Amino acid sequence: MSLISQLFGDETLDPFLSMINQCPVLSTPTDWKETPKAHVFVSDLPGLKKEEVKVEVDDGRVLQISGDRKVEEENGGGDKNDRQYKWHRIERCRGKFLRRFKLPENAKTDEIQASMENGVLTVTVPKQEVPKPQRNYGMCVTING
What we know:
Structural class: mainly beta
Number of strands: 7
Low-confidence stretches: 16-21
Largest sheet: 4 strands, antiparallel
Mean pLDDT: 78
Radius of gyration: 24 Å
Number of helices: 3
Order of helices and strands: HHHEEEEEEE
């Protein structure tokens, strides 16, 4: 029996999996695409209901997606510290998550729409025309002094 097996039992050490479970960015993957009419955010939130997820705009231009993945009490029940159960692996992420995205200047933050289906959250942020700054060509500057 190897030293690693003696220390960790039959469990294979998987540092990448441990990192995913501790990192809210990796445990809540979100795609952001820009279309001609909107910015669209798509987040994978398996096992969550829309009532367990919050979508907010913070500080005027920061889209915030948050929620809490609760520990399941049914189908085997108990938490990982419950001595009545013997857990062999706990890989699914639990606990609070928070993702924040700074929205560009052309985002219409008062018209954001969100929908959730089959554990996939879609947030649509419509775009508006941002006036381009006018350039002053041929302007004379007075030199003082």
